[in-house]
Design brief:
Blueprint: E1 7-12, H1 15-31, E2 37-41, H2 43-48, E3 51-55, H3 62-67, H4 69-84, E4 88-94, H5 97-109, E5 114-117, H6 129-136, E6 139-142, H7 147-153, E7 158-160, H8 175-182, E8 190-194, H9 199-219, E9 224-228, E10 244-245, H10 249-255, E11 258-262, H11 265-273, E12 277-281, H12 285-294, H13 302-307, E13 314-316, H14 322-329, H15 338-352, H16 359-370
Parallel strand pairs: 1-2, 1-4, 2-3, 4-5, 5-6, 6-7, 8-9, 8-11, 9-10, 11-12, 12-13
Helix pairs in contact: 1-16, 4-5, 5-6, 8-10, 9-14, 10-11, 11-15
């Protein structure tokens, strides 16, 4: 029987972190039902039994983060004070490196071990963070196959645990079942739109996502269009002409013939679901100018990064032109098209590189092994 640990403090900065944090907490409670967990998260973590100290802010980009700095500093002071009381036996940090590395430093100073689940993407930008990570992280649980070797070479104790998305994809519905769940017609073609999980992403993307859908409706009469909306996002129905669904991303992707995805985790979900897609992203001009200087990647879509080449076409910033995106998506609808067949095969290969289900359980075991 494991000894009872003190409170686990979890910090998850956005919708995807809330999802992964909830899965981890469920596994922790399966092992120690009375374990106390508090932290920063959203509705999924609250439902899993986390005492929410603050809601996830879910902001990204240099300009956007600057606007939220006062709130971040207040929250950091709150967490620092909580850890100073001695009540916290472990800090679990999920993604959101700009804030969570500061939490890690505060935990280190307070003598609290740090488990970083889904580490900052230092392979893409800011490699200088590796020195900070080596100093403040007790253990890292990484979710992409190439990350463990990189971190270990820089003195960070890292283990590849598999991608947590696989825990949610053990029993994917058929297209027929997914459409039934979403109230869609069984016949005809479906386009799924994933404009983002943050408010500023929605503002940057919505108009052009709608324009892509309109152009494809013109080309493909009878096309059904649905919009996947994160639980934390509120969209004005008057500004969005298509049905908005808050169902599982996998249900939406399995129901769809093709998806248009904002760059991020959704592109890996598309790979797991076997749904052909295109990847788009736009941010503020200032943020983009800075990113061009510091990001060391040929591609930004996770599906392409894992593949080591372009599986799904990417349209970034000024290249995100609706007609061009529609041109790329149009041939992917036809079941017999060579473009669709090639992409489905490539997506299957990406899925095979993501490991095996059970990441949340493996991270829970790591957490309890280092907690005080």
């Amino acid at each position: 029987m494991r000894p009872q640990v003190r409170e686990v403090l979890i910090s998850a900065g956005e919708a995807s972190g809330d999802m992964h944090g909830a899965a981890l907490v469920e596994q922790l409670k399966a092992r120690q039902p009375d374990i106390a967990v508090a932290g920063i998260g959203g509705p999924r973590m609250r439902e899993a039994g986390v005492s929410i100290l603050a809601e996830s802010t879910g902001v990204a980009g240099f300009v956007e983060v600057l606007r939220h700095l006062p709130a971040h500093w207040r929250l950091l002071r709150q967490l620092r004070a909580r850890m100073a009381t001695g009540r916290v036996g472990l800090a679990v940090l999920i993604d959101y490196g700009g804030f969570n590395l500061r939490v890690a430093a505060a935990a280190k100073a307070a003598g609290v071990p740090v488990l970083y689940f889904i580490t900052p993407q230092v392979w893409a930008s800011r490699p200088g963070r590796l020195k900070v990570m080596a100093r403040v992280i007790t253990k890292a649980a990484v979710i992409l196959p190439f990350e463990a070797g990189l971190l270990n070479r820089h003195g960070i104790d890292a283990t590849f645990v598999g991608h947590p998305l696989l825990d949610r994809a053990k029993d994917l519905p058929s297209r027929s079942e997914a459409r039934r769940r979403l109230g869609l017609r069984q016949d005809g073609e479906v386009l799924a739109l994933f404009p983002g999980s943050r408010s500023q992403e929605i503002r940057q993307h919505s108009a052009d996502f709608i324009a892509v859908a309109r152009e494809l409706e013109r080309r493909r009469p009878g096309l059904q269009v649905i919009v996947a909306v994160a639980p934390s996002i509120q969209l004005d129905s008057a500004a969005m002409p298509y049905p908005m669904v808050r169902a599982s991303s996998f249900d939406v992707l399995r129901a769809a013939n093709v998806a248009l995805c904002k760059s991020g985790t959704t592109t890996l979900e598309a790979a797991i679901a076997g749904c052909p897609c295109a990847v788009v992203y736009r941010t503020s001009a200032i943020t983009y100018a800075i990113l061009k200087r510091i990001v060391n990647l040929t591609h930004i879509g996770l599906v392409n990064i894992v593949a080591g080449g372009e599986v799904a076409p990417e349209f970034l910033q000024h290249d995100f032109v609706p007609v061009r995106v529609a041109d790329a998506l149009d041939p992917l609808f036809a079941a017999t098209s060579p473009q669709r067949a090639a992409m489905v095969e490539a997506l299957a290969s990406v899925r095979a590189h993501l490991g095996e289900p059970g990441a949340a359980g493996r991270v829970a075991d790591m957490a309890l092994a280092i907690a005080k």
